[in-house]
Amino acid sequence: MATKDGEKAEVLNAFFASVFNSQTSCPQGIQPPEPKDRDGGQNKPPMIQEEAVHDLLCHLDTHKSMGLDGIHLRVLRELAEELAKPLSIIYQQSWLTGEVPDDWRLANVTPIYKKGPKEDPGNYRPVSLTSVPGKVMEQIILSALTRQVQDNQGIRPI
Fold first, then answer.
1. Region Disordered: what ranges (predicted)?
2. Which residues are CB-neighbours of 79 under 8 A, at least 6 positions away?
3. pLDDT of res. 41
């Protein structure tokens, strides 16, 4: 039984790692075909609008936790005017290249007790605190994908 904080962290880390599924549904190295629109042309990736980034930054809930980067949501919200343009450029580049800044992929994992014996690591769920700018980008991508699916009345084979 772990008694020191470091030992407890190691036990929880080992348990969370053992139940984590890192496999993706798409095999590595395989590129999906380019989707075609109804006219037979290639769909272009959506442009990340500065206004959309600004709107999301202005509506951040400042009572939520900041990510591993230590940037408080209030700072992002109050500097939305200044941050919208550079973030929209970063988001657009990320969308086009398929690469995400390394810092946005890091998380601080906190175990949250559910119920049952506190000694059992299975009675905790991991909560990941990630970068807020990364989460804003995820919202923009989700919105773009949702629009694409709605415009095409679902996902159809190519």
1. 23-46
2. 57
3. 46
C-alpha 37, offset from chain centre: 27
Label residue 43 by pLDDT band (50, 70, 90). low
Using CA atoms, how far apart are residues 124 and 138, in angstroms rounded to an integer?
Answer: 26
- The residue type found at 27 is P
What are the structure tokens assigned to 151, written together? 């415009």
Mean of pLDDT values over 3-10:
82
DSSP 86-153: HHHHHHHHHHHHT---GGGG-EEEEEEE-SS-TT-GGGEEEEEEE-HHHHHHHHHHHHHHHHHHHHTT
Q: Which residue has the higher pLDDT, 139 or 157?
A: 139
Phi (first) and psi of residue 135, to 5 degrees: -70, -35
Give residue 151's identity as a one-letter amino acid code.
D
Instruction: List, in sequence order, every residue forming a beta bridge with 42; answer none if it has no partner.
Output: 36
State the Cα–Cα distance between residues 155 and 158, nearest whole angstrom: 9
Report residue 9 as tokens: 């962290």
Query: What is the structure's pLDDT at 36?
Result: 52
